[in-house]
């Protein structure tokens, strides 16, 4: 009985993903001739995938993300209850051979999504540290010190920090791991408004094309 409940929950994750994926393809169609960064943002808005890559030869985006569902486990003895199950999904959006974007969702081994989970945690950490920086420290060296105080972790590679008016944009390569078998990482753009002292600060983080990060 519990095995059946588990399989039903896992199947629901895939069904939901396949229902929503065409909507992302339509949004990409609406993007028209927008650049890779903008289209990467469209994929992120619809999938919230921490890792999104683009293959120009195939004109295809691949988004890796872990999805979860909850089912009620029943037991002969007290102690049952809600159980969460996870599934690693790969969303592929391609524009060849036709002019319109098409979508495909496949199930991957859970290990494939583990680097993305690590990257997601480090992006949250980077957002917090950038949010807490003084305005004068929103420079490339200042952000680098905030993200890697010792200079030895190397999970963050700060590419640049550009201020235009009251907005600072920081581009960072966020790595999942440093071992040779781990993916290099994902390039992210962090945007923070420079508000007056005492005002609430906010930071957005969106994945961008790998070409934005020289170290990728």
From TrEMBL:
Domain of life per record: Bacteria
Name of the protein in its database record: Lipoprotein
